[in-house]
Structures are given as structure tokens and as C-alpha cells.
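Example for tutorial group B:
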């Protein structure tokens, strides 16, 4: 569970995360769609059904790449946010615990 201040700060940063998504996702969508289109078009030249299939696959590849980019931006932003917040926490102390091989009271 996160504190209210952290949640508020995360929500305030949504605007810049959305800006990053709208910068990168369309470019990657076009690149992925173009790559799929260029790879599949020579295979189906001259067929209307084939052209429709290529268009559908191109659109699916482009949308998938855009969604993947948006998820990547969200994941990277969340990781960076947690790293920044973790710096404010006190350093963890190692606790040394000695374990016995045999329970107490038994001769070794």
C-alpha cells in the first residue's frame, strides 16, 4: 500500500507520461506496420483478399507495437518513481542471526 502523498505525486506525473507515450507510440506503430506491410506485400501481389489480409496484419502489428510502447513507458516510469522514493527511506540494516545445527540440550 502506498501513502497518499506518493499516490498524489504519481497522479500528477500522469500528464508527462502521457506526453511521452504520444511522442513514441505513433512512430513505433508506423515503423512496425510498415515493416509488416513491406514483408508481406510481395507474397500476395494481385489478390484483393491477400491485400486485405496484409492490411489487417499490418494494423494489428502497428497497434500491438503502440500498446507495447505505452506499457513500456508506464513500467519504466513506475520503476523510476519507486527508485526516487526509495532514496528517502532509511538504509536497511543487516541482522546477523546465528543458527545452531542441533537444537539446544542435545549433545553434539
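The residue assignment follows.
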Amino acid at each position: 500500500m502506498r501513502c497518499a502523498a506518493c499516490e498524489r505525486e504519481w497522479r500528477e506525473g500522469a500528464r508527462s507520461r502521457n506526453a511521452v507515450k504520444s511522442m513514441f507510440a505513433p512512430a513505433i506503430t508506423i515503423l512496425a506496420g510498415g515493416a509488416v506491410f513491406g514483408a508481406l506485400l510481395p507474397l500476395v501481389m494481385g489478390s484483393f483478399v491477400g491485400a486485405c489480409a496484409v492490411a489487417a496484419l499490418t494494423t494489428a502489428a502497428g497497434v500491438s507495437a503502440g500498446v507495447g510502447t505505452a506499457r513500456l513507458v508506464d513500467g519504466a516510469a513506475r520503476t523510476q518513481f519507486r527508485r526516487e522514493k526509495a532514496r528517502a527511506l532509511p538504509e536497511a540494516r543487516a541482522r546477523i542471526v546465528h543458527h545452531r545445527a542441533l537444537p539446544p540440550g542435545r549433545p553434539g
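The chain has a mean pLDDT of 81. Compare this with the pattern of hydrophobic and polar residues in the output above.
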